[in-house]
Amino acid sequence: MDGRPIPGVRTGDTVASLPGINTFAELLQLSLEDLQGAVGKLGEGEPAEGLKFLPPLDGRGEVWCAGVTYERSRGARMEESTEQSVYDKVYSADRPELFQKAPAWRVVVDGEPVGIRSDSGHDVPEPELAVVANSHGQIVGFTVCNDMSSRSIEGVNPLYVPQAKLFAGGCALASGIRPAWEVSDPKNLGIRLVIERDGAEVFSDTTSTAKLVRELQDLIDVLFLPNDFPDGVILATGTGIVPELDFALAEGDVITITIDEVGTLTNTVAVGREPFAFLATDNLEGIR
Questions:
Q1: Which of 8, 64, 148, 191 has an alpha carbon within 20 to 30 A of 163's alpha carbon?
Q2: C-alpha dihedral over 67, 69, 72, 75, to 10 degrees?
Q3: CA–CA distance, 249 with 276 (Å, rounded to integer)
């Protein structure tokens, strides 16, 4: 911890380094068994206060998303879309909807802003359990993802999904990974979303991963079938919370997502591309 970004293990108010592991990419290249052994061999710890926590992904790591995996998501997509049948069909299809969300360098973390497109007009957060898989396709942990989405753009035409989903500040992750062996039942976790505006709560809702129609390892298996992820991958597994059509995010809104046993993610909404120029600058300087 000499100014270089490195992975560590947080226990209470301290963070300890992992001897011989200098990046998340190196960590996620390990097998599940070796990774579990690595996090059990901690180096010297130091106070967490004052440290800058980055997204739990680097190198060639990527974030992907699964869509329409909850009944609520199917209903919301059908409400907003001019092509309703595609969402009804994918919900029950053998093949899940999977799409790339962001490379590691485009991901924002807890405490940083999340974005909405300046040409959208109707945007919502999507709170999701994110599965962390190593390069071998094994589930090694979980984190919290906010898959920001433009309802107005996707609603016009499902072919606009890339524009509705991939934009500056569109993907946020909690700063840590909860090891898979510490989560008793990932298909039975409570998820809560709270949105505040000018200090007042304007939306809140809860759901559970028990309502997720897909199996987590099945999603990972489909993702890995045609692809290599040499530095690991994080797959957000879809949302069971979508505000009604009369609600849209506004600049300055504070979004907090909490997933039982996994973590909390809080971000403030910014508009447009400019507030996220630091992602490219930090990456070039080797900070992120």
A1: 191
A2: 60
A3: 18
CA gap 267, 196 in Å, rounded: 11
Closest CA to 164 of 199, 122, 201: 122
Q: Which two tokens stand for residue 152?
A: 């107005």
The reported pLDDT for the residue numbered 157 is: 86
- Looking at residue 40, what is its pLDDT? 85
Low-confidence ranges of the chain (pLDDT < 70): 1-3, 72-86, 88, 283-288
Angle at the Cα of 42 (from 38 to 47), degrees rounded to 5? Answer: 135
Q: What is the DSSP string of 64-101?
A: EEEES-SHHHHHHHHHH-S-THHHHHHHHSSSPEEEEE
pLDDT in the model for residue 285: 47
In whole angstroms, give the CA distance from residue 2 to residue 43: 14
Q: pTM for the full model?
A: 0.93
